[in-house]
Recover the amino acids of this structure.
């Protein structure tokens, strides 16, 4: 479904899944979580403790649950701000994908209060759930022939934890990677 609040684009399935997971929230908790995440999107620090304790009331106590809820709400608020939509368009879009009324009211209240600040912060930094911290290459062990080791350090923007990933790339993989990076560079220009 194309949503006006998303610039006529579809809502990603992972966002819909995250919002449906929130459908069990009562009205005060739905609004509190939306307001907390909206204030974070506007530049304030995220009170993870408050979110975790609220989610625990609904048997949503894993880090994956926190990421699902925070990520989906951040996506909705920031994408709505990006496309210069208002809270009425946001509510209509959420009704289209059948999100609970408590969540719609919470999202709408959060966007009414923080929408302008979210839009302003979006000009400074784009919507990201992860951020590339560093990239490097190194020679793999001598047993790996015609390979290079690509090392990535990625920060989770929600909990600020960094994970490192190492990938062995063969020559043919490098050609594909370089081709994709060139495409990405064109999008960025």
């Amino acid at each position: 479904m194309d949503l006006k609040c998303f610039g006529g684009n579809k809502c990603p399935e992972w966002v819909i899944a995250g919002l449906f997971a929130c459908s069990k929230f009562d009205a005060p908790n739905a609004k509190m979580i939306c307001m907390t995440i909206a204030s974070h999107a506007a530049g304030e620090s995220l009170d993870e403790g408050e979110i975790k304790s609220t989610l625990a009331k609904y048997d949503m106590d894993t880090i994956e649950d926190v990421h699902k809820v925070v990520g989906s709400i951040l996506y909705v608020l920031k994408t709505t701000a990006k496309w210069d939509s208002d809270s009425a368009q946001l509510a209509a879009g959420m009704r289209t994908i059948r999100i609970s009324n408590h969540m719609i009211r919470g999202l709408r209240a959060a966007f009414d209060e923080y929408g302008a600040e979210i839009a302003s912060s979006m000009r400074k930094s784009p919507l990201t759930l992860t951020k590339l911290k560093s990239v490097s290459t190194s020679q793999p062990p001598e047993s790996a022939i015609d390979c290079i080791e690509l090392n990535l350090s990625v920060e989770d923007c929600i909990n600020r934890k960094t994970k490192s990933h190492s990938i062995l790339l063969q020559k043919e993989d490098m050609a594909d990677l370089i081709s994709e990076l060139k495409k990405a560079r064109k999008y960025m220009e």
